[in-house]
Amino acid sequence: RHTRFRGVTGVQTCALPICFPVTIQRPIYRAVSAGVYSLRATHIATGCIVNTQSVNVSVFANPTASLNFTGVVNRCTGDSVLLRVSSSGGEQFQWYEGSLLLTGQTFDSLWVTQSGLYSVRVSNALGCAVTPMVQVIVSSLPAVSVTAGGSTSICGGDSVALTASLSTGVVYQWFLNNSPISGATGRVFFAQQPGSYSVRVTTPQGCTGGSSPLVISLLGSPSVGISAGGPTTICSGDSVLLQVNTISGASVQWYRNDTSLAGQNGSSLRAFVSGRYRVRVQSPVNGCYIVTGK
Q1: Could you give the count of Cα atoms lying within 13 Å of 246 in the half-sphere of its Cβ?
Q2: Nearest Cα to 83, choosing from 69, 93, 94, 97?
């Protein structure tokens, strides 16, 4: 608290036989310490001195107060934060949002759900006060969706690229059937298994948002059985008949040592040469294929 002395009237005393009142118009002193203050003014031209009455200044201590948060507090839409003030010597509280007095908010705590600069005026019985403050930022939840880079019905062994809509400034986590997929933290995920896929993104402020699930289904591959019409260890010049059993209309391609055999597209193959024989069978229904061999 500062005490100003302004427009003080005093009594002139000097060597003249006549004393008369004078008014000191403009002297100002800011008192910041306790004590007894008075003013003596000397007239420059006459040397006359004016003495004022003394003023007793008392300086009372401010209460101490601190909030449970300092600086900036980040929260997400739908969240709330409890601001609480700890005080020593404070008896009265009044909360503000910016310069707006919050009517009825005269307790030592305040629930906050929206962004703003919040402060609380803590005062004692003498009117001395302090005002700690904190900035609250409430960020929106991120909205994210998932798109598939192809059909959501895939063949066994195939995959489809799933892409999250948000591309920058977020952290990703992919889920399969509501369980996190280990290591799946990129914007794009290649799904190979059937199930319900979703992605959760987290902003730098810690706000999270999740996508709607996208279901990946697995198409059936044709059932295939391959058999030999005799021993698979044969003498030079001999042969063994290999037979594949599968669904009607399926496309067939025979291989020896992973090299396709031209024109060998039937359900059987007579093998004269040693090697590893395999057959690729593709379904006429959904295009899925399977490779098996002897």
Answers
A1: 27
A2: 69
- Report the alpha-carbon angle 207-145-138, nearest 5: 20
For residue 38, the Cα-to-chain-centroid distance in whole angstroms is 62
Residue 215 burial (10 A CB sphere; 0-12, 13-18, 19+) = exposed
Which among 149, 67, 157 is positioned nearest to 112, based on CA atoms? 67
Claim: this prediction has a pTM higher than 0.70: no
Beta-bridged to residue 172, according to DSSP, are 201
Cβ atoms of 145 and 198 closer than 8 Å: no
CA dist., res. 218 & res. 120, Å (int) = 61
Give the residue carrying structure tokens 């899925």.
Answer: 288
* pLDDT tens digits, one per residue of 69-112: 999 999 999 999 999 999 998 889 999 999 999 999 999 999 99
